[in-house]
Amino acid sequence: MKLLSLVAFLCLGAAWAQTAQPAAPPPKLPDLPDDQVVAILDDGAKLTFGEFKKIYAALPAENQRMALQDRKAFVEQWAFLRKLAKMAVDDGLDQESPTKEQLEYNRNIILMNAKLSSALRAQQVESSEIVNYYNQHKEDYKQVHLRAIYISFGKKLTEEQAKAKGEKLLQQLHAGADFAKLARENSDDETSRAKDGDFLTLSPGDNVPDAMRTAVFALKQGEVSDLVRQPNGFYIFLAETVTYRPLSQVREAIFTAIKEQHYKEWLDKVNKENKVQFTSPQFLGLIPALGPSK
Fold first, then answer.
1. Is the pTM for the entire model greater than 0.85?
2. Average model confidence (pLDDT) for the chain?
3. Which positions ≥6 away from 5 have C-beta within 8 Å?
């Protein structure tokens, strides 16, 4: 019964978290000094609060909640797990297959993740790299504030009629007509029409249709786009202002991008240096395996 309780507590936290309704506020760690002993285990080992925090930090999120909600049960079951593991080592089970190989595999996985995290943290980024990146990718930080005229089709107008109306409006704009006035008089987008066609500010990373993105970011300040077809109508855009987000606003994002690039380069280098010599074509399935000798 105690073993089943242990498994439920340590391994089934995710299922418990999903079925618990309603979700309780996340419990908090008590305010204790790290060197304070919070429990003495049956072999005399002393568990300090600092050690408890380290164990807690290694748990999956759903198990962390359970460990804090019932700290007494968690420590008791942690001690039970620890005791069984020690008994297994005393019995030499850690040297038997498949346990030995499972331990080695999981040890390598944990150490690999530790090294990857360490390598990412260790990557250095120079200020000059950030400035160069910003200058080389400046178009990524472009912002275009738009006015728009929207001519819909499907209800009052057919697609051909809407297109013809849009082309006529374009001719007037190219001849110097006031965009705001035409938007007030012709746009089918009620929200922007009420603001003289004032539409929105777009950046390259915004989630907009490709046709709109292509048209908008090809514009210079003061330019008007050609008709941009969308599923239910045509847009005409005016690039009222074209600006760029300043470096101060995007420095942190650039720092992260460069750091991750350095990390990827390091990882690719380590991977390329990883050489394995295979000595059995049969193992790789390149030639048929040899049959048993007679």
1. no
2. 90
3. 77
